[in-house]
Amino acid sequence: xxxxxxxxxxxxxxxxxxxxxxxxxxxxxxxxxxxxxxxxxxxxxxxxxxxxxxxxxxxxxxxxxxxxxxxxxxxxxxxxxxxxxxxxxxxxxxxxxxxxxxxxxxxxxxxxxxxxxxxxxxxxxxxxxxxxxx
Length: 134
Fold this sequence. Notes:
By secondary structure, this protein is mostly helical.
């Protein structure tokens, strides 16, 4: 999914629709089987698959919409620069320090890797909690 999103910027909008192709259903079936073996019930497994899909597609949709929103205006000044002009380090020290990075939603393998790592770590912790409760 990440490879498709990176190669095709409009893909997140198509991928956010329900998957019903045999290939997509096999991926979902495999994920559900893994979650079942980890001790998750059907309802929880479905939610975990949905959360992962959202975690992958959310940033991809942001990248596409932010790119469109921050194109150069007719005056030649980038709207994002105008938006951050009033930002002062005194009033917003943390935002001022990371403003350029915060508005940069370009694809990055480190962001995609972090998304997967967060999801896997969260699922592992939930599975550990279930096994220690029994």
